Amino acid sequence: MSGLTLRNVSRQFDGLLAVGDVSLSVLPARVTGLIGPNGAGKTTLVNLISGLLRPTQGTIHLDDEDISSIEPADVARRGIARTFQTIRLLKEASVLDNVVAGFHCHERSSWLASLLGTPAARRETAELRERAAELLRQFNMLQYADQAAGNLSYGHQRRVEMMRALATAPRLLLLDEPVAGMNDREADALGEIFSRLAADGLAVLLIEHNMRFVMSLCQELHVLDAGRLIASGEPHAVRAEAAVVAAYLGG
Amino acid sequence: MIGFILGHLSLFELVLVSGVLAYSQYIVLRAGVFSMATAGFAALGAYTAALLAVRLGFPVWAGLFAAALIGAAAGLVLAWPLARLRGVFQAIATLAFVQIVMSFGLYWESLTGGALGLNGIPKLVHLGHLLVVLPIVLYVLRAVSRTGIGRAFDTIRQDETVAVSLGISVVRYQRLAFVLSGALGGLGGGLIAYRNYSLVPEDFGFPMLIAALSFVVLGGRNAVFGPLVGALILTLLPEVARPLADYRLAVNGVLMVLAIIYWPYGVVDTVILHWRQRKAVHARAVAEVTP
Amino acid sequence: MLAQQFLNGLVTGSTYALFALGFTLVFGVLHVLNLAHGAVFMVGAFAGLYSVTAVGLPLPLALLVAMLVGGLVSVAVDWLALRPLRRRGATEFAAIISSLGVAQVLMSAGQAVSQTQIMRFPFGTFPIVIYQFWGLRISLLQIVILLLSLVLALTLLLFLFRTDFGRQIRAVAISERTSSLLGIRPGLVYFQTFFISGALAGAAGVIIGLAFNSVHFLMGEPYLLRAFVVIVLGGLGSIGGALVGGLLLGLVQTFAVSYLSSSLSDAIIYSLLFGILLLRPSGLFGKLHIETRVVRA
């Protein structure tokens, strides 16, 4: 299992180089961080990895499989789950239903079974709801199962997003600024979950602004600026290495 | 007395048939597809069923099945360019589709009888048939709601970006929605053909398009009973308030505007939402009291 | 003859363009498909007709009345049916539904007022003068249609690109949020957009009512559907696209009718629509990214 590998990935928009010659790896069982100032190209990189954009140069591999130019839904099915910078929950659906949605790529019932409402299809629905409930239990959110997702606090909504992403049973978890707007306590609680997931074998790519959070969590750190990687390696070394970088990040 | 009952019986049958059309509109909206093609599907289904019965002597269930099949095929054809495109394009193209089908009906005189339409269609569908068809339709839609297809539709409808990130192939599911809508629309058309003795192309134009939309908008786009309730209300309204009957179309229009502005979820969904909120409030109150 | 059909096609096309201009303007600025546009067009035609028959106004004045009425009705449509939706941030679906409902109401009103009769401008409203040159025939009416459409379109373009108001409209079309941060009041912009759109539709109503010698409550429908093809062909929200698309469609229509048959011409036009949607949904001047489902470039 080699995780996610980007080789010389570039993305141009009509002459504007959003991402230039980025090479990095996100290995399983560790948390890899990606930081950089606004406009550095982080979002573009996330969209490239999740398949919403195609690289103009370079390749993206997941466990040795080339995913550079496949449809985003296929990228998700291959095992890349992502969270979004602005929370994208189905606000009017219940928390449980939001998490159940994450099980889609593992559903086994055919369309015909679904149309006919076969016992097998209905059983699967019940199973999925149970599995979702189990996830909720693990995250201490079972009491919110039937509430509309939009009614939850910000911190709780982030957890729902996390559970939904985990429901897809991914190989790589792409976290796009997951603790933005949280206080330290909430962020640390979420951070613990990320560490636990990595310890269980998941590859985690964490895109963040919050330097303190990143430092405490990541085993490897990459710094992006104006579309290019300007530093990579062990977090403390990277932080010390570029004072310029620190100027951007402001600790 | 008999007249009173019979009069209301045909009204009841009309509600059932309208319900089928409403569900054709409902299923596409449920999947986030801005299709308004139902009237076009109905036209295709109606003429198919009528011609098969009149010229080839098809029995009722075979005719209805053929009508649904033609509708499904038309849905598949529409899905070819439209499943990939944004809602605006789907709206434009399906509105145009309804018009095209009507044009074909008007100009292909050898087949459809042109503006004079088809006459002498046997009345093959009676209340009994409707009481079989509608529960089947309801069953299928309920099944869809509670299993994988419904889940995928709901996710796509509420947030396509999320759907894609969860591995849902939006194009494939919207294609499915078009086909299902086509089948239901075609079926509705077949039912109309076998009840009305005659068909003209104008029956399947803007007024039907708006009617199907208004059933769903007023009744509800989420809960399975919504469209039927909408069909019930809008079919009964002109009967209950006689002066409204003459301005049926205008009333439909006004109700649609009011519903979408003030009751965007439609009658049934709004009621369900309120009921759920009251339950949640009640549960919270109980939780606060119990230690 | 080819050249004659070409000329006829341009005249027809200019009416399509005139109708489509207002339609695409509203879409470009508010991203809303105003399905009541056809009904406003009809109301304008009615207003122009009644100005001539009931009030006895001369044609140019009737045209102005039609434009004024069209503009006001269009603003009313927005105010009643679309503004409440903007207030609560509703989806584009809601706006389409709402405008459809209003269209239905307006058409029913038109039906009631006209008692489902087809009405005509009285004989002599416009002098029947025919010019011949280079073997081509063209009537004064056709010339006026061409000129009027051209003038109105140019006026719109001048307004949008050379005046402050126009600049504000274009700014809101690009980004409402940024514009309001810059101090532009979107409400005023929307008012102007709908007024202009309705005025153009009203003018088109009178022109077409004269050209085809019929004014009836359903006259908007075929034009609305042709406008769909025009704006998809030209590019959603593009003014230039509406012009070019309208003219092109007019040519296609005229040639199809004269060389094939009028019943097939409808089929051809809608096949054109489907073909465009399959191959190049952005149309001639549209931006590619706004219409495909997921950005994939």
Plain-language structure description:
The complex is a heterotrimer of chains A (251), B (291) and C (297). Chain A is of the alpha/beta class and 251 residues long. Chain A has ten helices and ten strands. Chain A has a six-stranded mixed sheet, with helices on both faces. Chain A has a four-stranded antiparallel sheet with strand order 2-1-4-5, with helices on one face. In chain A, α3 crosses α5 (119-138) and α3 (95-101) runs parallel beside α6 (154-167). With 291 residues, chain B is mostly helical. The model of chain B has no long low-confidence stretch (mean pLDDT 89). In chain B, α1 (2-30) runs parallel beside α6 (127-146), α1 runs antiparallel to α11 (226-240) and α7 (148-158) packs across α9 (170-196). Chain B has helices at 2-30, 38-56, 60-82, 87-107, 109-112, 127-146, 148-158, 160-165, 170-196, 206-219, 226-240, 242-246, 248-262, 266-289. Chain B is 80% helix and 0% strand. In chain C, strands 1-2 form a two-stranded antiparallel sheet. In chain C, a hairpin with a 2-residue loop joins β1 (130-133) and β2 (136-139). Mean pLDDT of chain C is 87; it is low at 288-297. In chain C, 73% of the residues lie in helices and 3% in strands. Chain C contains eleven helices and two strands; from the N terminus they run ααααββααααααα. With 297 residues, chain C is mainly alpha-helical. In chain C, α2 runs parallel beside α4 (92-114) and α9 (220-234) packs parallel to α11. Chain B binds chain C through residues 29, 34, 80-82, 84-89, 91-93, 95-97, 99-100, 103-104, 106-107, 160-161, 164, 170-171, 206, 210, 213-214, 217, 247, 249-250, 252-257, 260-261, 264, and chain C through 27, 33, 35, 80-81, 84-85, 90, 92-94, 96-98, 100-105, 107-109, 112, 221, 225, 228-229, 232, 236, 263-264, 266-267, 270, 273-274, 277-278, 281, 290-294.
The helical percent of chain C reads over 70%
- State the secondary-structure class of chain B: mainly alpha
**Average pLDDT number of chain B:** 89
Largest sheet of chain C: 2 strands, antiparallel
- What is the strand arrangement across the widest sheet of chain C? 1-2
Kindly estimate the percentage of residues of chain B that lie in beta strands according to DSSP. Answer: under 5%
Number of strands of chain B: 0
The assembly state of the depicted protein chains is: heterotrimer
Pattern of helices and strands of chain C: HHHHEEHHHHHHH
Q: Care to count the β-strands of chain C? A: 2
* Poorly predicted runs of chain B: none
Structural class of chain C: mainly alpha
Q: What is the arithmetic mean of pLDDT of chain C?
A: 87
Q: Per the principal axes of the C-alpha atoms, what is the gross shape of chain B?
A: globular
Radius of gyration of chain B: 20 Å
Helix content of chain B: over 70%
Count the DSSP helices of chain C.
11
